[in-house]
Amino acid sequence: MKDFEKVKILLTGSTGFVGSFFKKELSSSNVISTSKSGGKGVLPVDLTNNEELVSLFESVKPEVLIHIAGNKDVNFCEKFPKDARQINVTATQYLVELCKQYGTKFVYLSTDYVFDGKKGNYSEIDIPLPSSEYGKMKLESEKMIQSSGIEHIIIRSGALYGQNGKFYQWAVNSLKEGIEIEALIDSFFTPTLLDDLYEITVKLLVLNFNGIIHIVGKDKVSRYQMISKIADSLAILNPKLKPMTISESGMFFLPDLSLCPDKLNKELKIYTHTLEEGLKFLVSSF
Ligand SMILES: NC(=O)c1ccc[n+]([C@@H]2O[C@H](COP(=O)([O-])OP(=O)(O)OC[C@H]3O[C@@H](n4cnc5c(N)ncnc54)[C@H](OP(=O)(O)O)[C@@H]3O)[C@@H](O)[C@H]2O)c1
Known about the structure:
Elements: E1 9-11, H1 17-25, E2 31-35, E3 43-44, H2 50-60, E4 64-67, H3 74-79, H4 81-102, E5 105-111, H5 133-148, E6 152-157, E7 160-161, H6 166-177, E8 181-184, E9 188-189, E10 192-193, H7 194-206, E11 211-214, E12 221-222, H8 223-233, E13 241-244, H9 246-249, H10 262-267, H11 275-284
Parallel strand pairs: 1-2, 1-4, 2-3, 4-5, 5-6, 6-11, 7-10, 8-13
Antiparallel strand pairs: 9-12
Helix pairs in contact: 2-4, 4-5, 8-11
The chain binds NADP nicotinamide-adenine-dinucleotide phosphate (NAP).
NADP nicotinamide-adenine-dinucleotide phosphate is lined by residues 12-19, 35-37, 45-48, 68-70, 72, 87, 109, 111, 138, 157-160.
């Protein structure tokens, strides 16, 4: 790929947790940032409106699309699948067609929820079998991109954490205020530092990578272990943590959604941070 900073990029989801981080990091690049409602330096574009997309592509003619916008609210997707499909599937369909037309490379942010969450440590060759509407929609989008013939990078990640993440901030505040936290001990995932996701996405683009890849942190943990590690990173010695099981919670949680980053590590020699390193980094950047 030519000089990355010169590549014309179209970014979606730029007001969200993940997209706003990408927008900030891409500030010295040739990027057009968009979201539904827009904002400072963010163009308002409704991705479910094909006419808006057609004129956007006509004026921007992006070389790379980084499509981060989506509805990741698992409960909302379960209750209102028709509504959620609009942004999670229909928008992808419109974008795929336009990428085909304009020769744009499609970078798609997918999720660990494409798997059934039973065995964990899923690699790129494991067969996805989503057990939620959200996972089904994300998988449908992945398949549309893969079968379209366009240049693409499908990134599966999970449990992203960073300075402005709701879960991280909630855990930090609760721990600092000494509030008791009930945390699951039997639901596992691979938390991923947002900085790692961004930096590796750029590396993959520079390397002209094409295909599907798992980008996750080095450690598989339960929610209980994650919060304990956050407490450690803040030097909180006796956090008020109450262990809980999925069945005691009475809520929908999957036992193990962890992803395996072996392809990233072994084939591309690219590595993410451990959870301890990531949390230490966040504390030091406050
Ligand atoms: N967060 C994670 O841990 C994680 C892990 C793996 C994958 N992902 C994927 O990353 C994506 C974003 O996650 P997030 O945590 O950043 O979500 P988020 O904070 O809820 O942000 C969602 C973004 O999507 C935009 N959007 C929603 N509907 C739109 C529409 N019709 N037209 C244009 N833009 C629209 C929103 O724009 P407005 O603010 O203007 O409404 C917002 O910028 C999701 O697709 C999710 O599947 C997230």
